[in-house]
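Example record

One chain of 201 residues, shown exactly as stored in the release files.
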Amino acid sequence: MTPKDNSSSKSQLHDERREQIKQAALKVFARRGLEGTKMSMIAAEAGVSDGLSYRYFKSKDEIFALLIREAIQGSIEAMEMVGQSEASPLERFRSLTVEMLEDGNNYYFVLMQQAMSAESLPNEVAKQLQSYSVQGILDLLTPIFIAGQKEGIFIDGDPGELVMWYLTVVSSLMLIDVSSMMYGYSKPDTEFLLRLIVKDK
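Predicted C-alpha cells for this chain:
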C-alpha cells in the first residue's frame, strides 16, 4: 500500500468511526435527553472505549450541537417534501405522522422535541434553535389542512389551531417511554391519531 493509499484508508476509518459514535449518541440522547446522557453511555452504545470517543468529540455538548444542526436541516427538508408533495392532504398528514412516530427512525424528531422543551441548553444549541421556527411549520401545514377541509376530509374549525393541537399530540407521544407505560399498553398508531382530525364517514 502506498503512503497515499494508507492516508486515504486512515481518513475513511476516521470518518466511519466518527459517524459510528455520532449515531450512537443520537440513540442515547433520544432515550435519555441531554442531561441524562454521559459520554461513557455514548461510548458503550458505540462499542468503543471512553478514551477513543474523546478523540473524536470533546464533549457530549459538541455531539449534541452537531446532531441538533442535522435535525433542524432534516426537519426543514421533511416539511418541504410534505409541502411539495402532490399526494392528497390526508396522505401528506399520514406520511408526516408516520415519520415522526416510527420508532427507531424518528430519533432526530425526538431530539428536536427534547431540545425545545429543555430548561437549559448549550449556547450553540440555543442559537441554532433560534433559526428554527415552529410557526414556519404551522404556516406550511395549515394550507394543506385547509385544502383537506374543503374536500370534506378534515374536521371543521380553525385550521391553524387544529394543526397546532394535532402536532402537539404527536410531539408529546414522541417523548413517551413505551417501557414505562402501565399494563403493557402501546402508543397509539398513525391511523388512530388521524381520527383526531378526520371527519367521520
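Notes: The first helix runs from residue 3 to 32.
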